[in-house]
Amino acid sequence: MPPIHRCSEALLSLDLSGKVMVVTGGNSGIGRVTVEQLARQGAYVVLACRRVAEGRRVAEEILASGSRGQVEVQELDLASLQSVRDFSARVLQVHPVIHGLVNNAGIMNSPMQKTQDGFELQFGTNHLGHFLLTELLLPALKAGAPSRIVNVSSCFHDKAMGREGRIDFEDLNFERRKYDGWSAYAQSKLANLLHAKQLSKVLSGTGVTAVSVHPGWVRSNLIHFSMPVFLQDILLRPLFRLAGMLEPWEGAQSTLFALLSPEVSNQSGKYFSQVGIYRTREAQRGGWPLHSPNPHAHDDGVAERLYQVSREWVGLA
Ligand SMILES: NC(=O)c1ccc[n+]([C@@H]2O[C@H](COP(=O)([O-])OP(=O)(O)OC[C@H]3O[C@@H](n4cnc5c(N)ncnc54)[C@H](OP(=O)(O)O)[C@@H]3O)[C@@H](O)[C@H]2O)c1
Asked: Which of 117, 170, 190, 293 has the fewest beta carbons under 10 Å from its own?
């Protein structure tokens, strides 16, 4: 099992009173633990989710557990650009200053489906929805500087079940190539990483830091398109744990490190993990910027082109 590093107590007890944080997919898995921890530290957290009733139930549980901060639930369906626009308008009206945006929500290995705007579902949800959200919230993030954007990517941006992560500009939506759920996931997670990389250039000098993270292999609902969740949670859990599967609170450590650690502010565009998945000394130490094994993750041209295409596709160009 690779080493997993917990954030320091000092980081997890920083006073976040007066800080506004937005976390997508905050009702489940890694996102839920992230919301819980930020609220515990006194932050005002906007829990963005597509199932509002479930989000409210989670928010009530978090607040009942004695957190010092606040949790506001707002509806957001990343598979609809209109929903992203509506969410952003509502949030900006109340919060013209935002200090942290965690682009956490995601789906993995879904069957071929399209978003409401006609994009392949994983690329549309994991990347394009978050891309538009980030662009629309940027004025508030700039107003909140020094502020952070954390994209929850994955080590599967490199290879997902053997499928290499690459951005296929000729066929981003799998209209000409045969659809494969793992290739689509790898493409979307590489897009998360490249998005943060390009943001670091676009936002240079603004005080807004953008990074991506790999949370580790985490027990969550993400698996549901690949196997029934109860298999992972009950029958296979001891075996998976031995093989390195983490609990959500462990998986949230990478996000929290990237969002809160002072060491990250001068590392914009980099890729972090608290899980020592790569065999370099830096990776084993956790937290430190990692060197992705995927050559496309280091290609400035791909990052810039993806940014421009994304702007066009979400209607901002
Ligand atoms: N678990 C892992 O091993 C692992 C490894 C590497 C990276 N990651 C990344 O970690 C992030 C969090 O995943 P997780 O493991 O915590 O899984 P999870 O428990 O399934 O959480 C995913 C969250 O995304 C939300 N979501 C999905 N589609 C959405 C949409 N169209 N609009 C708004 N929200 C949507 C889900 O909402 P619902 O509850 O309504 O479905 C849920 O809140 C993902 O980006 C994932 O790619 C996870």
From this structure: 170
User: Which CATH number covers residue 89?
Assistant: 3.40.50.720
Please state the pTM of the whole predicted model.
Answer: 0.97
Using a 6 Å cutoff on CB, does residue 138 contact ligand 1?
Answer: no
Best probe residue, ligand 1, of 150, 188, 218 (max atoms within 8 Å of C-beta): 218
Q: Check if 125 has its Cβ closer than 6 Å to any atom of ligand 1.
A: yes
Q: What is the pLDDT of residues 7-22, one digit of tens each?
A: 999 999 999 999 999 9
101 within a domain of the structure (yes/no): yes
Is 107 touching ligand 1 by the criterion CB < 6 Å? yes
Q: Name the residue range of residue 112's domain.
A: 19-214+251-313
Confirm if 157 and 297 have CB atoms less than 8 A apart. yes
Sign of the C-alpha dihedral computed for residues 155, 185, 20 and 139 taken in this order:
positive
Instruction: Read off the pLDDT of residues 136-159 as tens digits, 9 standing for 90 and up.
Output: 999 999 999 999 999 999 999 999
